[in-house]
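Q: Convert this sequence to structure tokens.
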Amino acid sequence: LVCYAEPGTAYAGQYPWGSQKAVVRQGIHTKMWGRLIPIQFELPIKYVIPDSEGDLGEQSQYANVDKAEYWAFSDAVKARIATSVVISINTVDEDQFLSVADRNKTERNLIRSRIIPNIDQSIKNTCKLMDAQDYISGQASDFDRYFKDQLENGMYVLEEYITNESVETIGDSMTIRTITNNKESKQKRFRIKKINGEPVRERGNSLKSYGLTVIQAVVTEIDWESTFDKRLQLQKEEVAQTQLEKQQAEREFYRAQKETAKGEAEKATERAKLEKQQIQKTIEAETRAKVAEFNLIEERKKY
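A:
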């Protein structure tokens, strides 16, 4: 006849005579032989990268935790992506809450049949929008933004386009290296299809249509495949070598500047020395000429 409503949980009560009722406050309520569908106010859903023994870490009865799967980025690099998503149900609109509970029957079915497919599709679409290299080069925040926006407002409609591979220059004017792939100069990429500056979305494929709100949607960890880790290591070594060569070139440049300055200083010293000798000799010659002139005047007077 009665039931106890747990805190933080909403209940959809379905009665034998066909009526429904939403219970959103904790405490004792009348049940009257009805069927209750409990759904948490906030549904935590996590994808976790297992450790070497396959353990997903500490589990909670209130969180839905699954193993992170591999997803392919635009450049075909694969990675296991761990995410943390928190979904809030709508307890203000009673009719919508009862409709969602009635259509999904259980909280687990709501998560498995509605929320997780949207999360997977959002991760898949977002991975198509960028290369793995773009992600580690500063677009991680864009990944989170695209991920959450699609969950909340609907999946993007992506369009394919061809981009030419540009030549990459590493170093400065003293140390230049160009990297290009001669075998494949064009690459297929995806971008968000837009009309009047707004993204085009798939119809009827958003959590908002079920009265669900995305409180949190972030990437917590990425485990790249081993081949990409090796590529990153090679890039780090290449960058380190380039920086070393640049420092050596700068060192040689400043050494040359130092030698030039030293030579100019020595020339200035020698010039000053010679000019001093020249002035001294000139003064001596002028003195002898003056003495001779005075001697001549004196002889003339005597004469």
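The two ends are 158 Å apart (CA to CA).
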